[in-house]
Automatic annotation (TrEMBL):
A GO cellular component annotation in the UniProt record: plasma membrane
Record's protein name: ATP synthase subunit b
Purpose: F(1)F(0) ATP synthase produces ATP from ADP in the presence of a proton or sodium gradient. F-type ATPases consist of two structural domains, F(1) containing the extramembraneous catalytic core and F(0) containing the membrane proton channel, linked together by a central stalk and a peripheral stalk. During catalysis, ATP synthesis in the catalytic domain of F(1) is coupled via a rotary mechanism of the central stalk subunits to proton translocation.
Bilayer topology: Single-pass membrane protein
N-terminal signal peptide: none
SUPFAM superfamilies: F1F0 ATP synthase subunit B, membrane domain
TM segment ranges: 47-69
Domain of life: Bacteria
Compartments, as annotated in UniProt: Cell membrane; Endomembrane system
InterPro entries reported in the protein's UniProt record: ATP_synth_B-like_membr_sf (IPR028987), ATP_synth_b/b'su_bac/chlpt (IPR002146), ATP_synth_F0_bsu_bac (IPR005864), ATP_synthase_B_chain (IPR050059)
GO terms of molecular function: proton-transporting ATP synthase activity, rotational mechanism; proton-transporting ATPase activity, rotational mechanism
Similarity remark: Belongs to the ATPase B chain family.
Quaternary structure annotation from Swiss-Prot or TrEMBL: F-type ATPases have 2 components, F(1) - the catalytic core - and F(0) - the membrane proton channel. F(1) has five subunits: alpha(3), beta(3), gamma(1), delta(1), epsilon(1). F(0) has three main subunits: a(1), b(2) and c(10-14). The alpha and beta chains form an alternating ring which encloses part of the gamma chain. F(1) is attached to F(0) by a central stalk formed by the gamma and epsilon chains, while a peripheral stalk is formed by the delta and b chains.
């Protein structure tokens, strides 16, 4: 160490003295730091190297692992958010589709009910028309049958008259035992027929 004189006068510091003083302070500080680290059981030089190694490893990990991992996680988060948004949109679309389906189903049911009601009305009308037609046909058949019966009745009455006239003439001939002339025959026949009509 440099000799420092202790006098009552203020010491004069020269540039050479300053350098020496600075060297002493640095040496004393290093000794003090080494003494403090040694007292804690830490090798200061090894600690500095480990700190540098840790910093280098941390930087390498950051750039090679953590930064890509953070980027990947951010992309995954973005993908998940997009998937959630898509799922919500799909759910909304599904709800709208379900509503449209229910509306169309109601509309189809309404249309089906209208068709069924229309078919029921048409069937009822057709049934009524068929009844009227059948009634008309039956009435026509009955009228035809009545005409036919009337015609047959007239024809039978005519045949009965002719037969009756023949029977009356034959009976009269037998009774009178002689043949009557045409005028008498005719008169007797007409009287007999008048009696038959009554």
């Amino acid at each position: 160490m440099a000799n420092v004189e202790h006098t009552t006068e203020t010491p004069v510091v020269t540039p050479v003295n300053m350098e020496e003083t600075h060297a002493e302070v640095v040496e004393h500080g290093a000794t003090a730091d080494a003494g403090l680290a040694a007292s804690l059981g830490i090798n200061a030089q090894l600690f500095v190297f480990q700190l540098i190694n840790f910093t280098v490893v941390a930087v390498i990990l950051w750039f090679l692992v953590l930064k890509p991992l953070t980027k990947t996680l951010a992309e995954r988060k973005k993908m998940i958010d997009e998937s959630i948004d898509n799922a919500k949109e799909i759910e909304t679309n599904l709800a709208l589709s379900e509503k449209e389906y229910q509306d169309k189903l109601k509309e189809a049911k309404g249309e089906a009910n209208k068709v069924i009601e229309h078919a029921h009305t048409e069937a009822k009308q057709l049934g009524e028309d068929m009844k009227v037609k059948a009634k008309t046909e039956v009435e026509g058949i009955v009228a035809q049958a009545k005409k036919s019966i009337q015609s047959e009745k007239v024809q039978m009455m005519e045949e009965i008259r002719q037969e009756s006239a023949t029977l009356i003439v034959t009976a009269l001939e037998k009774i009178l035992n002689e043949k009557m002339d045409g005028n008498i025959d005719k008169k007797i026949i007409e009287d007999s027929l008048k009696n038959l009509k009554k």
